Amino acid sequence: MKVDVLLGLQWGDEGKGKVVDVLTPRYDVVARFQGGPNAGHTLEFAGQKYVLRSIPSGIFQGDKVNLIGNGVVLDPALFKAEAEALEASGHPLKERLHISKKAHLILPTHRLLDAAYEMAKGDAKVGTTGKGIGPTYTDKVSRNGLRVGDILHNFEAKYEAAKKRHIDILKSLDYGPYDLEGMEKAWLEGIEYLKQFHLVDSEHEVNRLLDEGKSVLCEGAQGTMLDVDFGSYPFVTSSNTICAGACTGLGVAPNKIGEVYGIFKAYCTRVGAGPFPTELFDETGEKMCALGHEYGAVTGRKRRCGWIDLVALKYAVMVDGVTKLIMMKSDVLDTFETIKACVAYKIDGEEVDYFPFDISEGVEPVYAELPGWKTDMTGMQSEDEFPEEFNAYLSFLEDQLGVPIKFVSIGPDREQTIERYIDEA
Ligand code: GDP
Ligand code: IMO
Ligand code: MG
CA-CA distance, 54 to 14, in Å (whole number)? Predict the structure, then answer.
């Protein structure tokens, strides 16, 4: 068996949580492989809305194994709050959620360091989610991190040593005051709580399940344009969000990757700082924001909105090896007269259609314009009902990206998802 991967192709918040939930009945296992509580994955069904941060989005559909892989960074305090809220709402997870012993722990001082580094950057702030993601991955790579498996043996000494090191850095950055003791209380309770879960050697578990013929769906967090290597560096997150991240974040060999689902909005958004060539600063952008309820699931920050960027999307399709596309939030454009799509960048007067080293300055989008479909699509049941102009938009995108669009999402609810017939011959 192979693992399928589902990942965001833009700057995050494409709707990954919703689609993972929709696809879960087709799989035995759903696994997160990178990121941490910087993610906010929203699901809606039966009139209820849930936002998941560290727990995989397969948790609501039957008796599936949900796995937090080694590539994830976990904050025990936030994890406990998230897990307890789910259990309280009638979704028991202790038996179904497995956590890699190799996943790294986000310490309270990592969150303080995140804030301190942001402050030190001044105007060049990344606009992080403030969850300690960067400092935790930094400690992982510099071989100073603490892992979930460490909580089982002699943890206190390891924790105190890491804390002391962090406090020295905070002093050198002149950061404070802060209430570390207050933060530590919930965090240490979270450490105890974690011990009640299956803490596993997840690379062995995933490969064993594959050998037994089980199917696995890997759930990406963030998006390709936030990848630490290929995104709009330095305005990125600190993990590999691309498809290859599923290999390192779960211990799955590259030749075991099957289908790669690339998910994108029918337009584009970004939260936090950093370049965004197709960003709109006019009433069209405001309209996208209002109709799409574009406010961050984790931080509540307003998301910047703009037209779809096919130069960036093509790049994402290339580095991820996308085999099937999924288009989200098409309903947000239901009332638009004209739809624009960026097909090239103009840089120093020259048109380029590849994603360049630096998009921070002097990049002017070149747009194709298509007629809007001006039809309320939110109640549609099958692709047979799609308006002609909408089909034309889909064909245009498939043509540009060279990959078929397999699913279209026409609203936030689980039911508002349409699978398209694709001739796979
Ligand atoms: P994720 O981080 O990729 O899982 O995405 P988020 O949950 O952060 O953001 C996606 C937002 O769009 C959530 O509020 C979803 O409920 C919502 N959403 C998902 N699909 C659709 C859709 O097709 N139409 C509309 N209007 N909203 C959607
Ligand atoms: P999901 O999984 C959108 C952005 C932050 C910031 C940058 C670095 O819900 O799509 P970090 O806290 O990771 O160090 O912040 O990355 N960012 C996201 N933007 N969706 C996310 O996750 C994000 N996770 C991080 O806004 O610009
Ligand atoms: Mg999100």
Answer: 17
**Predicted local confidence at residue 34, as pLDDT:** 98
Q: Is any atom of ligand 1 closer than 6 Å to the C-beta of 75?
A: no
DSSP secondary-structure letter at 374? -
3-state secondary structure at position 190: helix
* Count of C-beta atoms within a 10 Å radius of residue 224: 31
Q: What is the mean pLDDT of the chain?
A: 97
Q: How far is the CA of 261 from the centre of ligand 3 (A)?
A: 17
Q: Which residues pair with 260 in a beta bridge?
A: 5
Choose among 386, 359, 360, 358: nearest CA to 373. Answer: 386
Active site residues: 13, 41, 140
- Three-state DSSP state, 254: helix
In degrees and rounded to multiples of 5, residue 203 shows phi and psi of -65, -40
Residue 164: per-residue pLDDT: 98
Angstrom distance (rounded) from CA 281 to CA 249: 37
Grade residue 425 by pLDDT with cuts at 50, 70 and 90. Answer: low
Cα–Cα distance measured from residue 141 to residue 379, given in angstroms and rounded to the nearest whole number? 48
Question: Would you say 203 and 146 are in contact if contact means Cβ atoms under 8 Å apart?
Answer: no
pLDDT in tens, 241-297: 999 999 999 999 999 999 999 999 999 999 999 999 999 999 999 999 999 999 987
Residues with CB under 6 A from ligand 2: 8, 11-13, 35, 38-41, 126-129, 131, 133-134, 221-223, 226, 235, 237-238, 271-272, 297
Cβ partners under 8 Å of residue 264, min gap 6: 8, 9, 10, 14, 308, 313, 316, 325, 326, 327, 328
Pocket test for ligand 1, best of 7, 10, 11, 13 (most atoms within 8 A of CB): 13
Residue type, 197: F
pLDDT digits (tens, 9 = 90+) for 376-415: 999 999 999 999 999 999 999 999 999 999 999 999 999 9
Kindly calculate the radius of gyration of the chain based on its CA atoms and give it in whole angstroms. Answer: 21
**268 CA to middle of ligand 1, Å?**
12
Q: What gap in Å lies between CA 275 and CA 208, rounded to an integer? A: 42
Please answer whether residues 217 and 23 qualify as being in contact, where contact means their C-beta atoms are separated by less than 8 angstroms: yes
pLDDT value for 232: 96
Pick from 36, 175, 181: which is nearest to 113 by CA? 175
Per-residue model confidence as pLDDT tens digits over 341-350: 999 999 999 9
